[in-house]
Amino acid sequence: MKPPSESVSKADQTALPCLVVFPKYRAESSLSLSAVPKSEAFMRLADLSFNYSVLGAQGFETLAGLVNSCQAYDFIYDGDFNHASDLFVQLLDDVR
Q1: Is 90 exceeded by the pLDDT of residue 94?
Q2: Distance CA 88, CA 25 (A)
Q3: How far is it between the farthest Cα atoms of the chain?
Q4: What distance in Å separates the CA atoms of residue 5 and residue 50, rounded to the nearest whole number?
Q5: Cα–Cα distance between 59 and 84 in angstroms, integer?
Q6: What pTM was computed for the model?
Q7: Which of 32, 61, 34, 35 shows the shortest CA–CA distance to 46?
Q8: What is the spatial distance between Cα 28 and Cα 77, in angstroms, rounded to a whole number?
């Protein structure tokens, strides 16, 4: 597939993370988004990062910087991508 020309023209632009989302699928549930404290987000991300302990201080500093610059959320959804996408667009608008 060929990428849109707008994407190609912006290939040299960088983006900074602003959200960390921990998704969980739950059949027949309504969308749920709840804030996760930074300390808990740090520990959960460290647990999910296979090379965190290998990187030592560099891994700690990198992860701490990520968590410090982002808002973290638990997200429960029923598998409906369109509803989830709408929620994330709204969330991104709120953090910008």
Answers
A1: no
A2: 16
A3: 43
A4: 36
A5: 31
A6: 0.83
A7: 61
A8: 8
For residue 83 the two structure tokens come to 């509803």
How far apart, in whole angstroms, are the C-alpha atoms of residue 47 and residue 15? Answer: 25
Ramachandran angles phi, psi of 32, nearest 5°: -140, 130
Look at strands 32-36 and 71-77 and give their pairing. antiparallel
Structure token digits, residue 63 = 């992860």
Structure tokens at 43: 């520990």
3-state secondary structure the chain: CCCCHHHHHCCCCCCCCCEEEEEEECCCCCCEEEEECHHHHHHHHHHHCCCHHHHCHHHHHHHHHHHHHCEEEEEEECCCHHHHHHHHHHHHHHHC
CB 91 within 8 A of CB 35: no
Per-residue model confidence as pLDDT tens digits over 20-45: 999 999 999 999 999 999 999 999 99
The separation between CA 92 and the C-alpha centre of its own chain, rounded to angstroms, equals 11
